[in-house]
Specification:
With 226 residues, the chain is an alpha+beta fold. It has three helices and nine strands; from the N terminus they run αββαβββββββα. The chain has one domain. Helix 1 packs across helix 2. The longest helix is centred in the N-terminal third of the chain and has 55 residues. The protein starts with 10 loop residues before the first helix and ends with a helix.
Length: 226
Amino acid sequence: MKKSSDKGFTLVELIVVLIILAILAALIAPALIGYIDEARAKKYLPNARSCLEAAQAMFSQQYGLNENLPVGTPVVSGAMDESNNANKDQDITNTQFAKDVLTLAGVPDGTPYLFMVGVGSCSDAVGTVRNGHTVTEQDKYTVYYAVYMETASSKAWYYYNGEWTTTNPRYNNTNFAFNASNEIITGRYKGVKIQYYLISNHNPAYQGVGKTIRDTGFWNWLKAMK
């Protein structure tokens, strides 16, 4: 009878194969994880868009209701908390305006974890020229920026320069989309100064008077998100 010449792998060969597989896994895993994160994030993009459209509709309605507001007066009243700087950033969570935005958007109860929009600053007088942009009354009612998180663990979506992206335009001040005065310095809306309205916030670390819009930690938390 003819003897089989087949041989199994030696221990050394098995170790080499395992090392090669480990190297391949180390190279592929980050890309795969990134792909999975992006796929999960895209699942929530429709809700982010719905919230943005609802917010813009509500601000447009507010434009029709307001009349001759003095410079520096926020266009939405009833804020639970406001910033101490000239931007007059407002925490309007749980106000009727915020509730109407989320109802109009049709998002599930208890979501989003975070939703904040930025419109033109109420502190700029009409006719002010900033970096080539002439301030109009409509700026104060136009959404130029938004950040949306469906859950505490989901990747954030950002809206700026008319597009949605998962790239934080203010990540640790490295992307230079805004300057220190919250003025847009790149893209189609260059020169617009942003005022923020916090519409939904379920982060327990930043809830309550003095813990949201006024809190430097809140802004650092937002800037730290990738």
